[in-house]
User: What shape does this take?
Amino acid sequence: MHLLQGAGLPGPTAYTEHLRVPDLSVGTYVLAVGDVDGQQPHTEDEIYVVLRGRARLWTPGLTVDVTAGSVAFVPALEPHRFVDITQDLHVLVVFGPAERSRGGEAG
Assistant: This one.
């Protein structure tokens, strides 16, 4: 068992990894009001669990409002980013398999 210390709290960078094993990784992504989310598509599947805050999650085919309790799945290679951040956003991120285990970010 692993207890993830600090998950959901701001880290030294926007994304802080808390756990990595071959089949998944878990981290916290924190964006302040007005921040620009510059992430690129990942080569791994991703689940976002919004812990607090308010924003919109954009993909080419759909944009949805997200708030505390929202859970979103983004398949590998799908362009996506958080936009219109109106309350500081704290997101738990789960990658399967572990982030960058398939060669990093796409494109």
